[in-house]
Design goal:
This protein is mainly α. The protein is built from ten helices and two strands; from the N terminus they run H-H-H-H-H-H-E-E-H-H-H-H.
Length: 166
Protein backbone atom coordinates (compact mmCIF):
# COMPACT_ATOMS: atom_id res chain seq x y z
CA UNK A 1 0.00 0.00 0.00
CA UNK A 2 2.83 2.38 0.89
CA UNK A 3 4.61 1.76 -2.42
CA UNK A 4 1.43 2.35 -4.42
CA UNK A 5 0.66 5.47 -2.41
CA UNK A 6 4.09 6.93 -3.18
CA UNK A 7 3.66 6.03 -6.86
CA UNK A 8 0.46 8.08 -6.87
CA UNK A 9 2.32 11.05 -5.40
CA UNK A 10 4.88 10.80 -8.21
CA UNK A 11 2.22 11.27 -10.89
CA UNK A 12 2.00 14.58 -12.74
CA UNK A 13 -1.63 14.76 -11.57
CA UNK A 14 -0.80 13.89 -7.95
CA UNK A 15 -3.42 16.37 -6.76
CA UNK A 16 -6.13 14.42 -8.59
CA UNK A 17 -4.76 11.16 -7.18
CA UNK A 18 -5.09 12.45 -3.61
CA UNK A 19 -8.58 13.78 -4.31
CA UNK A 20 -9.50 10.36 -5.78
CA UNK A 21 -8.32 8.62 -2.59
CA UNK A 22 -10.49 10.98 -0.54
CA UNK A 23 -13.61 10.72 -2.73
CA UNK A 24 -13.42 6.92 -2.84
CA UNK A 25 -12.84 6.81 0.94
CA UNK A 26 -9.57 4.89 0.42
CA UNK A 27 -7.61 7.60 2.25
CA UNK A 28 -9.24 6.41 5.47
CA UNK A 29 -7.19 3.20 5.19
CA UNK A 30 -3.92 4.87 4.20
CA UNK A 31 -3.61 8.19 6.08
CA UNK A 32 -6.85 8.69 7.97
CA UNK A 33 -5.40 11.75 9.74
CA UNK A 34 -5.35 13.59 6.41
CA UNK A 35 -9.15 13.56 6.29
CA UNK A 36 -9.23 16.02 9.20
CA UNK A 37 -7.79 18.69 6.87
CA UNK A 38 -11.08 18.71 4.93
CA UNK A 39 -13.18 21.60 6.22
CA UNK A 40 -10.46 22.82 8.57
CA UNK A 41 -10.80 26.53 7.89
CA UNK A 42 -7.83 28.87 7.71
CA UNK A 43 -7.62 32.65 8.13
CA UNK A 44 -8.70 34.09 4.77
CA UNK A 45 -6.16 36.90 4.99
CA UNK A 46 -3.36 34.31 4.80
CA UNK A 47 -5.16 31.51 2.95
CA UNK A 48 -7.76 32.83 0.51
CA UNK A 49 -7.70 29.46 -1.25
CA UNK A 50 -9.73 27.87 1.55
CA UNK A 51 -9.36 25.01 3.99
CA UNK A 52 -6.20 23.04 4.83
CA UNK A 53 -7.13 20.28 2.37
CA UNK A 54 -7.44 22.73 -0.55
CA UNK A 55 -4.17 24.40 0.42
CA UNK A 56 -2.36 21.05 0.58
CA UNK A 57 -3.66 20.08 -2.86
CA UNK A 58 -2.39 23.41 -4.22
CA UNK A 59 1.03 22.85 -2.62
CA UNK A 60 1.25 19.45 -4.33
CA UNK A 61 0.25 21.07 -7.64
CA UNK A 62 3.03 23.65 -7.27
CA UNK A 63 5.85 21.14 -6.90
CA UNK A 64 7.89 20.59 -10.04
CA UNK A 65 7.93 17.18 -11.68
CA UNK A 66 10.64 14.70 -10.69
CA UNK A 67 11.09 15.79 -7.08
CA UNK A 68 12.13 13.37 -4.36
CA UNK A 69 9.63 11.13 -2.61
CA UNK A 70 10.60 12.87 0.62
CA UNK A 71 9.60 16.27 -0.74
CA UNK A 72 6.29 14.89 -2.00
CA UNK A 73 5.53 13.41 1.41
CA UNK A 74 6.58 16.60 3.20
CA UNK A 75 4.26 18.62 0.97
CA UNK A 76 1.40 16.26 1.78
CA UNK A 77 2.09 16.32 5.53
CA UNK A 78 3.38 19.87 6.08
CA UNK A 79 0.07 21.08 7.58
CA UNK A 80 -1.22 17.74 8.94
CA UNK A 81 -0.97 19.23 12.46
CA UNK A 82 -3.32 22.14 11.77
CA UNK A 83 -6.62 20.40 12.62
CA UNK A 84 -5.19 19.26 15.98
CA UNK A 85 -3.98 22.77 16.85
CA UNK A 86 -6.95 24.78 15.54
CA UNK A 87 -8.07 27.66 17.76
CA UNK A 88 -10.34 30.59 16.97
CA UNK A 89 -9.96 33.42 19.45
CA UNK A 90 -9.06 36.80 17.94
CA UNK A 91 -8.60 34.95 14.62
CA UNK A 92 -8.00 31.40 13.45
CA UNK A 93 -4.63 30.15 14.69
CA UNK A 94 -2.65 26.92 14.52
CA UNK A 95 -0.05 27.40 17.25
CA UNK A 96 2.83 24.90 16.99
CA UNK A 97 1.19 23.06 14.09
CA UNK A 98 4.67 22.47 12.66
CA UNK A 99 5.83 20.65 15.82
CA UNK A 100 2.58 18.70 16.24
CA UNK A 101 2.61 17.94 12.50
CA UNK A 102 6.17 16.62 12.69
CA UNK A 103 5.16 14.20 15.47
CA UNK A 104 2.11 13.09 13.53
CA UNK A 105 4.18 12.68 10.37
CA UNK A 106 6.67 10.46 12.18
CA UNK A 107 3.87 8.27 13.57
CA UNK A 108 2.16 7.99 10.18
CA UNK A 109 5.37 7.15 8.35
CA UNK A 110 6.43 4.55 10.93
CA UNK A 111 3.02 2.95 10.59
CA UNK A 112 3.52 2.91 6.81
CA UNK A 113 6.96 1.26 7.26
CA UNK A 114 9.14 3.94 5.65
CA UNK A 115 12.88 3.73 6.33
CA UNK A 116 14.29 5.69 9.26
CA UNK A 117 16.31 7.86 6.86
CA UNK A 118 13.25 8.88 4.84
CA UNK A 119 11.19 9.46 7.99
CA UNK A 120 13.88 11.69 9.49
CA UNK A 121 14.17 13.86 6.38
CA UNK A 122 10.39 14.29 5.92
CA UNK A 123 9.87 15.03 9.61
CA UNK A 124 12.62 17.71 9.50
CA UNK A 125 10.96 19.39 6.50
CA UNK A 126 7.56 19.42 8.23
CA UNK A 127 9.10 20.62 11.49
CA UNK A 128 11.05 23.45 9.82
CA UNK A 129 8.63 24.65 7.15
CA UNK A 130 7.52 27.67 9.20
CA UNK A 131 11.06 28.91 9.98
CA UNK A 132 11.38 30.66 6.63
CA UNK A 133 9.15 33.48 7.82
CA UNK A 134 11.71 34.31 10.53
CA UNK A 135 14.79 34.45 8.29
CA UNK A 136 15.08 38.24 8.39
CA UNK A 137 15.01 38.17 12.20
CA UNK A 138 17.57 35.36 12.62
CA UNK A 139 21.04 36.03 13.89
CA UNK A 140 23.67 35.28 11.29
CA UNK A 141 24.87 32.17 13.15
CA UNK A 142 21.34 30.76 13.38
CA UNK A 143 20.69 31.52 9.70
CA UNK A 144 23.89 29.73 8.70
CA UNK A 145 22.92 26.72 10.82
CA UNK A 146 19.44 26.74 9.25
CA UNK A 147 20.85 26.88 5.72
CA UNK A 148 23.30 24.05 6.46
CA UNK A 149 20.51 21.57 7.15
CA UNK A 150 20.84 18.43 5.04
CA UNK A 151 19.05 18.81 1.70
CA UNK A 152 18.26 22.48 2.36
CA UNK A 153 17.28 22.89 -1.29
CA UNK A 154 14.27 20.64 -0.67
CA UNK A 155 13.26 22.72 2.34
CA UNK A 156 13.31 25.74 0.04
CA UNK A 157 11.25 23.93 -2.62
CA UNK A 158 8.65 23.06 0.01
CA UNK A 159 8.57 26.67 1.19
CA UNK A 160 8.11 27.94 -2.36
CA UNK A 161 5.29 25.48 -3.08
CA UNK A 162 3.69 26.38 0.28
CA UNK A 163 3.76 30.10 -0.58
CA UNK A 164 2.40 29.48 -4.07
CA UNK A 165 -0.33 27.30 -2.56
CA UNK A 166 -1.88 30.33 -0.91
Amino acid sequence: ITEEFVKMLRLNNRDEAIEFLVVTDLMRFIVSEFLDTIGCNQPPEFHPEGDVFTHTIKVLENLPDNVSDELLLAALFHDIGKPATFTNTDRIRFNNHDIVGAEMTENIMRRMKFSNEIIEHVVRMVENHMKFRFITEMKKSKLIKFMRMPKFDEHMQLHKADCLGS
